[in-house]
Specification:
The structure is a homodimer.
Chain A: H1 3-20, H2 26-32, H3 39-51, E1 55-56, E2 65-66, H4 68-76, H5 86-97, H6 102-117, E3 120-124, E4 133-140, E5 145-152, E6 157-163, H7 170-184, H8 189-196, H9 205-223, E7 230-233, H10 236-240, H11 250-257, H12 259-267, E8 277-280, E9 292-299, E10 307-314, H13 319-337
Helix pairs in contact in A: 1-3, 2-3, 5-6, 5-13, 6-13, 8-9
Chain A binds a DNA duplex through helix 2 and helix 3.
Chain lengths: ~350, ~350
DNA sequence: CTTTGGCACTCCAGCAGCGCGAGTGCCAGG
DNA sequence: CCTGGCACTCGCGCTGCTGGAGTGCCAAAG
């Protein structure tokens, strides 16, 4: 009972089916792959694979199609991730290194992923809570209003306007600014926010309210819905694979609009967050994604993973190359962010 | 030769077809509408309308379907734009007034439009070049770098980092900041940028380069590709109308990804930019949009139109209500922006 | 125990044929 | 100028058929 060969058969079925989108039969299999056995033997193997739930036939007298579980085994038992050609590597590096700021990096990354994989690409903005604080700036802009600018280590910039009851002297602002930066610069925002909580105590009573408001604004930035942003591209690629979605692509597009869902996908990483994770079909908790697969990876400066990126496509997807591409792009983005 | 009645027939055909998606025949027409004549008469009218190119039949012995030209006449000869119910008005006002900043306004607007019209919604960010300058802030952030923050009258905030050869004294920065604001505050950015061109001359030679860089940065903000941003929502609605797109929705999704195309749509407004404009099917220059219609309007603070918004859907669209919704939303957004 | 060739069986895809019905154009009469 | 009547057209959907791909099983061979 050659366990090894059955795996090879599964692999062959997945490969052929991904390529042709047609159920693959035992005869076609022995012709296209050097399996060294006859079609009858393959049929026996297929029967076993079907018992194990790894493949299925759409109807009697049709070839076999991989099930979600089959894809799962295929992915888990992948011998080696396909290496990328050096031309591809150079294209990635060149395209990303031309970016001028963080928005541009994210924008380029998502487009690059979409065009390389021919799937829907998703990129999360570096999350504030996992970033360090580079600088906090306070700017009185007249009318009793104060602009608070937060510059994160990843280059992300957030601004908020606070409405004070009256204008504040520049000297006070300068003092507050200096002490906030002294406390927070270089630290994780989360950490900085908690350290700053006691800051108002050190100020004269008449300024405490001002300081309190600024500190709270910084803390709020962490909590907001919108602090977690996500960008996507290549939705048009779904249409190309329209045939692969049983119910049409409507539910999938719906899911893509719910950014919360996408964020959850990107945050549910594997043990090693910088490794590539794959979620397949029914494994998704969200209804609309049950006919899709998602390949994700974390990225970030140095060893800190600050956000996730990935691609989404039909379960009938070329996993090896998609995984290789996602991994490569995640690495290059991380590298680009470290400037 | 009752010219009037033929128009009524066209109207009836458009209405029925929009509702049922089925070619409408002469008999069904007299049943569903009080036209006061027999089906034979309608048939004669239909023959004329077909000669004029306003309706067509998919094949002999099928009912009639409006052509793009037919929709055009229907829209142009629209007697009155359907008024919105007060409940709807309140829903719009309530939803938009809850926004906390510009990003939030834009985000809410686009979602609101998409859900009200059940189509794809597009909202352009207030363009910088058509906005006024509220404030310019310069912030030294160490390492010879200077953060330039531009706050526009619409609430939009742009920031850029300039790399100087060395750190600059705060007193110099304060001087530059004061003079820049004196020159530009309250003016249109475009105008301010040109006034500022001569500003470096008034400074000591050793600071001219600094001033020049800041001024150029502000000017560059106008030129950048990315200065014109556009946000969309409701792409999933396309799937619902999948049947209305002859070639499937692929090309349409493609067009939606090219933001440049969308921006052109929104900027090609009518003579009165705050009025609602409609572009139908073949009237589009972009290939992928030939099977869609777009309803747009400008919006902005007071009488200044600073950006556009609109919805996109199949040519088989409920024009009267869509137009009413777009108009109402554009007005409310304008009102919300005036704070 | 595993592999193989053979064989009967199943069942879908695709095509042809056909009747129904909706809808039209035209004409003669009001 | 409108209307009722009538012959005509043509797509849609149904049915029935057939070819072929693919399977499962079995008995024989390694």
């Amino acid at each position: 009972m050659s366990d090894e060969r059955r795996l090879a058969v599964l692999r062959a079925i997945v490969e052929d089916y991904v390529q042709t989108r047609e159920p693959v039969g035992s005869k076609a299999l022995v012709e296209r792959h050097q399996l060294g056995v006859s079609s009858a033997t393959i049929r026996n193997d297929m029967a076993v694979l079907e018992d194990e739930g790894l493949i299925a036939q759409p109807h009697t007298s049709a070839g076999r199609v991989p099930t979600d579980a089959g894809y799962r085994v295929f992915v888990d038992r992948l011998t080696a991730v396909k290496p990328m050609s050096s031309a591809e590597r150079q294209a990635i590096a060149g395209f990303l290194s031309g970016a001028v700021d963080l928005d541009d990096v994210v924008d380029r990354t998502v487009r690059l992923l979409a065009s390389l994989t021919q799937q829907v690409a998703v990129v999360q903005y570096p999350s504030l809570s996992r970033s360090t604080v580079r600088h906090v700036e306070l700017v009185p802009i007249g009318g009793g209003r104060l602009l608070v600018v937060l510059i994160a280590g990843t280059g992300r910039v957030e601004q908020r306007v606070i409405d004070l009851s009256q204008d504040v002297e520049e000297s006070v602002v300068a003092d507050v600014r200096a002490r906030i930066n002294a406390e927070s610069s270089g630290r994780l925002l989360r950490e900085a926010a908690s350290r700053l909580e006691s800051l108002p105590d050190g100020f004269a009573p008449e300024h405490r309210d001002l300081v309190h408001q600024v500190v709270r604004t910084l803390g709020d930035a962490l909590e907001e819905q919108r602090e977690e942003r996500v960008v996507l591209a290549g939705a048009a690629n779904l249409a190309r694979f329209g045939q692969d979605f049983p119910q049409s692509i409507g539910p999938v597009l719906d899911a893509l609009e719910e950014h919360v869902v996408l964020l959850r996908l990107l945050s549910e990483l594997s043990e090693d967050p910088s490794a590539v994770a794959v979620r397949i079909g029914r494994e998704h908790s969200h209804e609309g994604l049950r006919s899709t697969s998602v390949v994700t990876s974390g990225y970030g400066t140095g060893s800190d993973v600050v956000a996730g990126l990935g691609v989404l496509g039909p379960t009938r997807m070329d996993y090896p190359t998609t995984m290789a591409t996602v991994r490569a792009v995640a690495r290059y983005v991380s590298r680009v962010l470290e400037r």
